[in-house]
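Fresh eyes needed here. Have a critical look at this protein's tokenised backbone.
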Amino acid sequence: MGLSAEEAAEQEDRFDGMLLAMAQQHQGGVRELVNTFFSFLRRKTDFFTGGEDGVAEKLITDTFNHHNKLAQKERKEKKARQEAERREKAERAAKLAKEKQEANEPRIKELTDEEAERLQLEINQVRAVPGARRPHLGRPLRWPARSSGSSEWLKRLKACSFAETDDEEEDEKDKGKLKPNSGNGADLPNYRWTQTLSELDLAIPFKVNFRLKGKDVVVDIQRRRLKVGLKGHSPVIDGELFNEVKVEESSWLIEDGKTVTVHLEKVKQNE
């Protein structure tokens, strides 16, 4: 009955300590160590002369081939492990780099035609109900705001003071002030905005002869600042907000391929 793999391993390495001590005393390396083994067999045994011709040589050849086969197998397995570890390390590095890039760049999902049509239908249904709250459309996508533009739009927002009247005549104090639209906001030359007690929505149409995509526009939503425009052009909106907004709960999207809508959640309601 043969030895088990574990028993064979124990048998194989039981002389390692002694052989290692011998090897360390051979300054000539493996060649000198092997020569010592054969010298011992020649001088102290009948290994070379005690058997038939060729037996000793065959034993040496068979033993060499056996251990050479094991060594080559172990080398291939080690190389395969190292390659797998290298690939895993490269994949982890690529994943981390991608996550870092996604954290610093705008995140946008291109909608299919079916998804865009369904979303547009939902928006139209919400608009048809007075005072309805528009659906939350995800986290904002932030582009770096590096250039400073006119904040005239903001001044006009600050100047808006709306009197809650229907068919009554204008009070003297309200003359000259911008009249509110149906959404308690204002219709300005380049965009329109509406608001409720807790949120504010802006619609910025762009006169372009192609369908807008996320890569074509710049939208930067900050707590006290908003920037919207086409890449490579002066922004339509670029200035400080009247009050702070919740950046993480604000969002934007492209409607009909022509209009950018921005949804802002107010930090302080009633303002």
Observations:
- Confidence is low (pLDDT under 50) at residues 131-153, 155-167.
- Strands lie at 186-187, 192-195, 199-205, 217-221, 225-230, 237-240, 245-255, 259-266.
